[in-house]
Known about the structure:
The structure is a homotetramer of 190-residue chains.
Chain A: H1 5-22, H2 29-36, H3 40-46, H4 50-74, H5 79-96, H6 98-106, H7 122-135, H8 144-164, H9 175-186
Helix pairs in contact in A: 1-2, 1-6, 4-5, 4-7, 5-6, 5-7, 5-9, 7-8, 8-9
The first copy, chain A, binds a DNA duplex (21 and 21 nucleotides) through helix 3.
Amino acid sequence: MRDGTKTRERIETTALLLFVEKGVAGTTIRDIALAADVSEGALYRHYAGKDELVWTLFSRHYGAFAATLDELQAAAAGLRAKLDAMVAGFCRLFDSDRTLFRFLLLAQHGQVEKLTPAMANPVEIVRAAVASGVQRREIPLIDPDLATAIVMGIVLQTATFQIYGRLRGTMTARAAALSAACWRALTPDA
Amino acid sequence: MRDGTKTRERIETTALLLFVEKGVAGTTIRDIALAADVSEGALYRHYAGKDELVWTLFSRHYGAFAATLDELQAAAAGLRAKLDAMVAGFCRLFDSDRTLFRFLLLAQHGQVEKLTPAMANPVEIVRAAVASGVQRREIPLIDPDLATAIVMGIVLQTATFQIYGRLRGTMTARAAALSAACWRALTPDA
Amino acid sequence: MRDGTKTRERIETTALLLFVEKGVAGTTIRDIALAADVSEGALYRHYAGKDELVWTLFSRHYGAFAATLDELQAAAAGLRAKLDAMVAGFCRLFDSDRTLFRFLLLAQHGQVEKLTPAMANPVEIVRAAVASGVQRREIPLIDPDLATAIVMGIVLQTATFQIYGRLRGTMTARAAALSAACWRALTPDA
Amino acid sequence: MRDGTKTRERIETTALLLFVEKGVAGTTIRDIALAADVSEGALYRHYAGKDELVWTLFSRHYGAFAATLDELQAAAAGLRAKLDAMVAGFCRLFDSDRTLFRFLLLAQHGQVEKLTPAMANPVEIVRAAVASGVQRREIPLIDPDLATAIVMGIVLQTATFQIYGRLRGTMTARAAALSAACWRALTPDA
DNA sequence: CATGAATGAGAGTTCATTCAT
DNA sequence: CATGAATGAACTCTCATTCAT
């Protein structure tokens, strides 16, 4: 109990939730400490400061999710199948940890700007898959960034509507519909 | 009087820019006063407080843009044409006032949650157009909210990529491509 | 009263006293605010922070005293007379504002290290006077820095003893004795 | 036991260095623990707290140096010789352990104020020697405290300049020059 | 009426010290 | 007995808001 691991976990879970609910700027160290039942000072033994806590949380999970996405995509053959796999991946993350999904993909902390090109990045995974689909003539010529925007937009906006309560049920239940919509949007002459 | 109006305009333009660049929470009254060349105290003669300034800015322009969108949509016959018109409307806003676009549609201030159902709302305009398209069998049966998410997602994510520098040029130049993508995404058996 | 000048003065007088009594590190912003009867926040309208307050206080008065010392020295002909004048200058500062003397010449805030060579500096004034005395053969050859140490040491340690209560009375009353001692220390074969 | 002693020594050496470099207030227990490769908690097994550590360090060495100075002075006959011996003692301490010299004689921790009259004290040793010189008519009548200030000032300010880099080389090399200067300063009609 | 000095609550952070392990 | 996680008070600094001038 005094080894700090439990405390770290409690802090991170709590912080994630608060960051998503009230925004990073709107969440105070005191908020986190109170909700995690830790003293404010204790937080600083684990993280150099608020910024570092945010970055730790973001970069660790962002990278991990990118890796998952890459595995899913690699295991599928052809853009259509890759889209299915990736969209399903996004949906699974949403359904299994909605808070994490929001923190990684929807919340506006300034962390995305801190990512270096070398770091694994879900957007780049999607882009690479789409780009290779274009190259293999699976879909007509399209700016890969525009294609990525279309795919990400469809997925993320649907997730956003789910959070706002406009859409109900699980994301996974819609996965097939979403990847189909992406595919159609990318293929003018299907 | 004239002077008061000029001051208000300077304050609002400045505030909008700062809110978008540094976030609402990250922008201080002092920042605004300094950049708008007004005293801090003077700001409180025009707005009851920071919150009210944010809300004023948001609700006025949000409603106005919703009205514009509604006119565009109403002037077009059929969902395909309505989509063209609305997407073009989004693109025009982006190109003419990128800052305003970001503030209204991309930034996460908590203002959207304060909107009452009675207030004009771009998302609802899009939803209504899509819903009537479904009702008129122009597109196959689809949850109107899902369809709205798809349209909004494609437009907003493209705008986001433009802001990040992933995509270059004007949004208007892409308007046709975007509304075409929306249309295809909504029409499984086109 | 609301123009801030009075407040500034109150802050500076108070701060100087506290810095000398409890040390810079040992004095908190709250201490100063309380003693100056100002809110803590108000301090930050006048100074960017504690460091800047310390530096403002130090550099302004340090430079001013150096200028005074230089005038005194320049008005005297010959090292012996210059010593008399400068030592009397130190003594006058001590007697007229003991707190300031301590802050400028005895306290160990890290400000001396921040001085640039271009800034007026009492030690350099003394050194220059001594060096010119050596050059004009008024005193035998001696490392000007060593000579400066001797002069400064005699003056500052006497002041220190006065503060500790080991010595009583005014410094001015001892001025002649001190500059005579300095002169003898510098002239082996007087 | 052996180990405990080693640890104590490591702590004390480290602490002394840090106190001199960053000031007592500017040095944290954590700094010391880290630099001495000890846990923070372990420090409290050796010392009741930070204050006690400072006091232990100061009083022990201050007393020891006073004793050394007293022996040196006692072994010399006449004020002139006593001055030579004592100044050499100061110089030797400076050259052999500059950090200790700074901590004992130049740094402004509030420890000097805690000394009781009963405790051995370098300043008192110097004072006693000078006072007896006055009494024996070796030097003209002078306030013994003023004489002490002159001697201490010459020595300490020279050491200070050495630390600032204004003077180079060893203090011992200057010992004779310094005690000669002291002697001259004390003897008007030599 | 505009100004900007002042307030005061609260933010992030530090640190000597304690104490469960 | 050593460790280092935890505490909690205190610190520096920020900022929306008020208000004397």
